[in-house]
Amino acid sequence: MERTTCCVVGGGPAGMVLGLLLARAGVAVTVLERHGDFLRDFRGDTVHPSTLALLDDLGLAERFARLPQRRVTTVQLPIGADGSLITVSDISTLSGPYNYVAMVPQWDLLDLLADEARKEPSFSVRMSTEATSFLVERGRVAGVRYRTCGGRTGELRATLTVACDGRGSLARSLPELRLRQFTCPMDAWWFRLPRREGDPHGLVGGVGDRFLTAMIDRGEYWQCAALIPKGTDAERRAAGLERFMAEFSTAVPWLADRAHELRSWDEVKMLDVRLDRLRRWHRPGLLCIGDAAHAMSPVFGIGINLAVQDAVAAARHLVEPLRRGAVGLRDVRGIQRRRWPTTAAAQALQRLAHARIIAPVLAGHPPFGHPRRAQRMSQLLATAPWLKRVPAYFIGYGAMRERPPAASVR
Ligand SMILES: Cc1cc2nc3c(=O)[nH]c(=O)nc-3n(C[C@H](O)[C@H](O)[C@H](O)COP(=O)(O)OP(=O)(O)OC[C@H]3O[C@@H](n4cnc5c(N)ncnc54)[C@H](O)[C@@H]3O)c2cc1C
After folding, report:
1. Predicted local confidence at residue 23, as pLDDT
2. Which residue has its alpha carbon closest to ligand 1 atom 3?
3. What is the pLDDT of residues 132-142, one digit of tens each?
4. N or C: which end of the chain has fewer CB within 10 A?
5. Using an 8 Å Cβ cutoff, are 222 and 195 in contact?
6. How does pLDDT run across 363-375, given as a tens digit for each residue?
7. 33 CA distance to ligand 1 centroid (A)?
8. pLDDT tens sequence across 84-125
9. Which of 69, 21, 15, 75 has its CA nearest to residue 47?
């Protein structure tokens, strides 16, 4: 029989941070990741001050700084009276060394965390291993059944199972963890275009006819996102790639000279944007964190950082009970209590941006529904620039800062 103390399902940002923190505290932890590597393109790449400060606490700041990255300090939204982008949050105004967002490919961050965790004797990660169902004994989750890519199946028993397997989590099929869903006005298209000398740096936005774009500077290429009205993927594809690229070139004229390099719709990946959260994040023997507990929209790039902060809070609450070998309902309930307010606040902020800015713009209307309201908003931000500090702090650190367990700090 295979046994571990903590079985973490999913090696995304939440799972890898939790695995590293618990292993450093001497807890036996096994992470199951269904993919063979961490190479996942078109995923969240924004590492915010809360995660940068954590990496510093873990003694990983120098290694992280050596990863290829671009730094961004402002968040811009299309609320100008003419749809132009206005800076609504300036992270450089925050005090401390981490007053920027590092744009780092997610796989580089995950590789770094995995490398570091593998140095701990109590850590193991099983790649290409998918958890297929929970083992339930006397009403308690006692581990998982799994299947490897080679077709081998097995059972891994654990004192606690933590679902970090994203928004398609296995745990979401459990009836007692009911899901609350919020409407999302958009889906996201991702594609790449070459980057040339003289192009801008960092994160650049644009507003088109019923779509919004954001370009992430990846050194040799631009990772481009286009937000389109939800459910219009097939209709827009049927209208032809040339038409979309012509619209895109109008919205982002400095990329127009290479729009033709996108040759087929196969190069444009569709990501269904969802915003939801479980009403209950736990049941005996099981805890859900990260997107498994609350799927986040890409707006403000908060998702990874919220997932990482969940993992930090979970590790702090769980080290002692896991060392004792008994995790009670009170322990897991305490984690949801701690993380729920900051999650609900982050989702409320995203819903506000969806309803007031993204939905009107995608419907071809001015943000806030009326040009005068948008104008007032941009005037307010121009006359009271200190207002940009409030969202900057919230986006940078969240409503509550989490500290890792002392035993995990280096
Ligand atoms: C279009 C889009 C763009 C986004 N952009 C950003 C952004 O720029 N910045 C940001 O901060 N957030 C962004 N987000 C949100 C962000 O991606 C998530 O909030 C974040 O990745 C959540 O981390 P996680 O570890 O909880 O889950 P995930 O990142 O989803 O990781 C889950 C992991 O579990 C694995 N897994 C799944 N099922 C199983 C199983 N049964 N067995 C074993 N392994 C399994 C998966 O392979 C994956 O590695 C974006 C989301 C979308 C939809």
Report:
1. 98
2. 298
3. 999 999 999 99
4. N
5. yes
6. 988 887 777 887 8
7. 12
8. 777 888 888 888 899 999 989 899 999 999 999 999 999 999
9. 69
Please return the burial class of 36, using the count of CB atoms within 10 Å of its CB with bins 0-12, 13-18 and 19+. exposed
Whole-angstrom Cα distance, residue 374 to residue 81?
6
The 10s digit of each residue's pLDDT in 28-63 is 999 999 999 998 766 778 999 999 999 999 999 999
Residue 315 phi, psi dihedral angles, 5° rounding: -60, -45
- On whether the CB atoms of residues 108 and 123 are closer than 8 A, the answer is no
Cα–Cα dist 312/297, whole Å = 21
pTM: 0.93
Paired tokens of 144: 């998982």
The rounded mean pLDDT for the chain is: 92
Q: Which two tokens stand for residue 327?
A: 């995790």
86 within 8 A of 80, measured Cβ to Cβ: yes
CB 14 within 8 A of CB 311: yes
Tokens read off for 98: 């981490």
Q: State in Å: Cα 393 to ligand 1 middle.
A: 23
The two structure tokens encoding residue 323: 């060392």
Q: What are phi and psi of 208, to 5 degrees?
A: -115, -170
3-class SS of residue 22: helix
Cα of 302 vs centre of ligand 1, distance in Å, is: 12
